[in-house]
Amino acid sequence: MSILTDDIKIPELLAPSGDLTRLKAAVDYGADAVYLAGEEFGMRTAASNFGEKDLKLGIEYAHSHGVKVHITCNTIPHNAEMARLPAFLETLNALHADAIIASDIGTMGLVKKYAPDCDLHISVQSGICNYETARAFYDFGAKRVVLARELSLDEIAEIRAKTPLDLEIEAFAHGAMCVSFSARCLLSSYMTGRDANRGDCAQSCRWSYSLMEEKRPGQYFDITETDKGTYILNANDMCMAEHLDKMTAAGVDSIKLEGRAKSHYYTAVVTNAYRGALDSMKTAPLGGWKCPEWVLEELNKISHRTYSTGFYLGNPQNSQTYENAGYVRDYAVAAIVDGYEDGCITATLKNKFLIGQEFDCLEPKAKPFIVTANKLFDGKGNPIDSAPHPMMTVKIPFERPVKPGSLLRMKA
């Protein structure tokens, strides 16, 4: 795999937005584009998603900061839903969405008809694994293809070499992995009646399973040497932060972060980290880029499963966790910064803390730094020894201004 050269541009950073608050976090922390869903037709019903009012506000906020908005219409709709789709697409067109992401061929045709001003992006759900399929979607009118997660970097490079240069390539770099091909799964439907292909996955692949022999009903046998059963389908999370140069060299135009159902905190941290990693490429010597250590540290401060590189570097290694389906959660948000005045950070409390608490401060588009509450005041300026009440205003003396929206974190 080749390395970065001076004629390769830095890819777009595409961040998830589960609601308006998370959209603003993605924009503020450095996304070049965001992707989100309306109240129907998107693959994450667990996210809050966007009604028409929030769609308008979100698109306006993103565009005012030079950030593009991609709308997911990537479920596999049934007949009863199709009559509602044209009006929704017309609304997206009128709101000036930049792109619509689709996986169903019928939906793609409707996008071209009812949202002609929006670019057509082909979802990962379409399972694009070769250059002929990518080229066929290009001929159909696609501006971009989101490649299947089951590809290696060498395969991506070949697709790039054998498709039109104005066909953009998007690929996932971070987040939860699905055990099924390109997230097309029937397990949730079978187990719970919740259709993963219509955005309602119950994550049945994360459950613990045991083995039962047909003629011994009720007798369960562990599949591994533990007393908890085994999480045989539980895929680890993806993290390609250390290999962004290889993804870029392979021809990836857009680095995609998974997580529309994740928290505001997750959105801010992962967007800021990948922004820092991509920006560091601009000043790195040719062939000498290395992911900044602080970026890797940041990605361990969000809720995550064990990380892997998926299929990108060949057959998956360290790709599943068999002991449990739990997340690593080491940090909590203590307060969100509202502003800076009279030598003090003013913030809104999220989790209680005491005077003397040391915070790891995450400021938009910046490397984290330490803030220590050696002195602590309430919103009226009265000295206090603790901050016990959620949503109360606190003031912490600090030597310089801190941007609004910054997160004061503490070890959980």
Task: Briefly characterize the structure.
The protein is 25% helix and 22% strand. The chain is an alpha/beta fold and 412 residues long. The strands form four sheets. Strands 1-2-3-4-5-6-7-11 form an eight-stranded parallel beta barrel, surrounded by five helices. A seven-stranded antiparallel beta sheet has the order 17-16-21-13-14-20-18, with no helix packed on it. Strands 8-9 form a two-stranded antiparallel ribbon.
Q: Note the overall shape.
A: globular
Number of strands: 21
Count of helix runs: 11
* CATH fold-level name of the largest domain: TIM Barrel
Q: Specify the CATH architecture of the largest domain.
A: Alpha-Beta Barrel
Question: Which structural class fits the helix and strand makeup?
Answer: alpha/beta
Distance between the termini: 40 Å
Low-pLDDT runs = none
Rg of Cα set = 23 Å
Task: Please bin the fraction of helical residues.
Answer: 10-25%
Mean pLDDT figure? 88
Kindly estimate the percentage of residues that lie in beta strands according to DSSP. 15-25%
Number of domains: 2
**How is the largest sheet built, in terms of strand order?**
1-2-3-4-5-6-7-11
CATH superfamily of the largest domain: Aldolase class I
- CATH class call of the largest domain: Alpha Beta
Q: Major β-sheet, in short?
A: 8 strands, parallel, barrel
What would your notes on this structure say?
By secondary structure, the protein is α/β, with parallel strands linked by helices. It has 2 domains: 12-180 and 235-308, Alpha-Beta Barrel (TIM Barrel); 331-411, Translation factors (Elongation Factor Tu (Ef-tu), domain 3). The protein has helices at 20-28, 52-64, 79-82, 85-94, 105-114, 131-140, 153-161, 187-192, 244-249, 264-281, 293-299, and strands spanning 12-16, 33-37, 68-73, 99-102, 119-122, 144-146, 168-175, 211-212, 220-221, 237-239, 254-257, 307-308, 331-341, 344-349, 353-354, 358-362, 369-372, 377-378, 386-387, 393-397, 407-411. An 8-stranded parallel beta barrel has the order 1-2-3-4-5-6-7-11, surrounded by 5 helices. Helix 7 (153-161) links the parallel strand 6 (144-146) and strand 7. Helix 4 (85-94) crosses helix 5. The radius of gyration is 23 Å and the shape is globular. The mean pLDDT is 88.
